[in-house]
Amino acid sequence: ADVKASPAGKGAAEKVIILANNVGNAPILSQKQFSCSGASSVSRIQAHIQTKIRSSPKYADANVHIFINKSFSPAPDENLSDLYKCFQTDGKLVVDYALMEAWG
Q: Which helix (H) or strand (E) covers residue 43, if one does?
């Protein structure tokens, strides 16, 4: 079962619910919502989404770009629990992904 990170941010041990939205010509993931440890970094989410997209031969060489709030690209080593504390919406961290730079 998914466990939501508390708004008070009890730390990296909490699970963060990720809602992944495609942008532009990026394919839609079959599972748009998933959870991940708050201790994980943005690069883990990026790798997860990229692996799912690359499973299609059409996107075998695709590079995925990650954005938060449709405005900025977080550092790959940014902690998910920190992003959740600052940018969560309705108990989820909304992550937009694209195959090319879209914002910021």
A: helix 42-54
Of 52, 56, 55, give the one whose Cα is nearest residue 20: 52
Give the C-alpha distances (Å, rounded to integers) separating 63 from 5, 47, 54, 100. 29, 10, 9, 8
User: Which DSSP category does 71 fall into?
Assistant: T
Sign of the C-alpha dihedral computed for residues 12, 18, 23 and 29 taken in this order: positive
Neighbouring CB atoms inside 10 A of 32's CB total 12
Which residue in 17, 12, 21, 27 sits closest to 69, CA to CA?
21
Contact yes or no for 41/78 (Cβ under 8 A): yes
Query: pTM to 2 decimals?
Result: 0.82
14-35: pLDDT as tens digits: 899 999 999 999 999 999 999 9
Residue with tokens 């031969």: 57
